[in-house]
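Recap from last week: sequence in, structure out.
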Amino acid sequence: TDAIGALDRAISLSQNEGALFMHRAYVRMLAMQDFEKVIEDCGRAERLGTVSSEQLDIKARAQSRLGKFENAIDAHSQAIALSPNDARLFLHRSETYRASKQADLALADAQNAFAMDPNSAASHAVALCFFELANYEKALEAVEIALKTGQKMAKLVSLKGQILSRQSKYRDAIDTLKPLESKSTSIAVFETMAFCHLQLKEYADAWKCIAKTLDSQDQSLESLAIAAQVAHALGEYSKAKNFVERFVKAGGSSPEIDFLLGKFASERKDWRGSIDFFKKSLKKRQRYPEAWQAAGYAFEQVGEPEKAVHCYSNAIKVGGNQPDLRMARAELLLTKAEYQDALADLNWLKENNVDASKVAKMLAVCNSKLVHSRARK
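Predicted structure tokens:
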């Protein structure tokens, strides 16, 4: 603020010095405020003949902050044309490409910057691009390089935790982020930790983490979605419904929230309504065993056993063998007189010592039916 004030006074004394306008634009950019005025100062400097890669870069970054991505990319490119060996310029254009959802172009610029100056900032930028392109193995490699070449900054550790989470290495992600828990103000840290605890069914720990995001001004839709799932898992159904309503009202869309809406409909015995929500959830995320299982149960309730068997089979396929799923499918297959398929499930249940007396009775029925069927043939 003092610097801007001093530059204001200098400009009032010499309004034809383009360098003064450029310096004021630079200071305003450092202060991360008045981006329109930054662009205005850069324009004044340009009209007074002060054109440089630095001035163009400052203008581009301000335009990017205001969401004027096409103008920003054009200014970045002009800056790079004037100083093609300045790695910082490629990094800044990479940031704008990422902000405008052009991760492939962002990656190319970040890799160029790293080739010119293999520092921590450049490898961090490369990691961010790979992360957005869902190439988590490459993203993790770049983060490790950044951690080796620079300080162990919180943002790098946070990104590493997020990458591990996306790789389903939930315990490793929690262990990575744990040192940041007491000092971090980053929503991403607590969201990621809460999500990992949720996947590990550590609901109390998940709630402790996600609760820290709920009063923040930077609260995200992701926070609301996680909070809804954790509250539902803890049996706090009114809280879960409140988070779901806030998520939907804010324009959010996710398979997890569709799943919860389906569960709420099931609780009201609105089976057709629940099936519609489970279908929406599975359309967004095919590998969702809980949604397949819930849909299977709903189809059972409306008297559609074939569709129920299909859903249970998919739940087993994507979620692994679970005794309750095998049992539910075996019971349905018996009612449909598909004894050979039922036998496979029942033998698995017997081998895994699941409800021995019930399975023994079902096996007896199944084997008897198979004997009669063969005799008739």
